[in-house]
Design goal:
By secondary structure, the protein is an all-alpha fold. The protein has one domain.
Length: 242
């Protein structure tokens, strides 16, 4: 964190944008699972995973890379938004870091299906069926844990959007769009917890505002932040040390 603070605000912002784009490997991971995992069909899911094991493993790697990238991204944004509000910036950072920790920890549920499926004895139909059911159960556990982490991510989006809106060194429209994105994530998350059938009707439309994250990442990489205004706001906040 000391080295981060010593870098210029514009450089920090651009590095944050770079790591945000690296974090989009999660999109690849989600696409892989959408192609291989068949809801309520353990046999088809098991067949797809074993037939495309390397692709499945690459999806897992995409998840890990995304988590690491977003941890760095979160720390960089925390330092950038300290002049706006130290407490809110810290709260946002802790929220997302906990969410990323949850995602990393539940990654074992993505590896578990490979263990149980490859260990099933092919000559025992009962054993194979049980292994397939167990593999799907692990994947369902991962989905539930992921939904919990997304609650924290949605909260982070809302807080970060508010911080952007209050800042003087980034366009306010980015903050508004990011906060809307976070609100939509929360609606989708809690619809999944309470009314799964209703959630199916919401997706993918409710997640479209998530494009705000890409817009923010693009702005950070290309434009960075207005360094002069950042320093002015830091000075007004009591002289945030770089």
């Amino acid at each position: 964190m000391e080295k981060i603070r010593e870098a210029s605000p514009r450089f920090q912002a651009r590095m944050a944008g770079v790591f945000a784009w690296i974090g989009t490997t999660e999109g690849f991971a989600i696409w892989v699972r959408s192609r291989l995992v068949v809801d309520s069909d353990a046999a088809a899911t098991a067949h797809n995973i074993l037939a495309h094991e390397l692709l499945y493993r690459w999806g897992f790697v995409g998840d890990v890379i995304s988590c690491v990238a977003f941890i760095i991204y979160t720390l960089l944004l925390y330092n950038l938004f300290r002049p706006v509000s130290m407490r809110l910036s810290l709260l946002a950072a802790v929220s997302n870091l906990v969410g990323e920790a949850i995602q990393l920890s539940i990654g074992v549920f993505l590896l578990a299906p490979l263990v149980v499926l490859e260990g099933a004895h092919p000559l025992s139909a009962v054993n194979v069926a049980k292994s397939q059911a167990l593999a799907l159960m692990f994947l369902n556990f991962y989905s539930d844990g992921y939904a919990i982490s997304m609650v924290l991510f949605g909260f982070w989006n809302i807080l970060t959007g508010y911080l952007i809106f209050r800042s003087t060194f980034l366009p306010r429209i980015l903050g508004v769009l990011l906060a809307i994105s976070g609100l939509c994530y929360q609606i989708d998350n809690f619809a999944g917890f309470l009314w799964p059938a209703f959630q199916a009707h919401l997706e993918p439309y409710i997640l479209l505002p998530g494009i705000a994250e890409l817009l923010l990442a693009l702005w950070l990489v290309v434009m960075g932040v207005n360094e002069q205004r950042w320093k002015e706001q830091a000075s007004a906040a009591g002289g945030i040390r770089m």
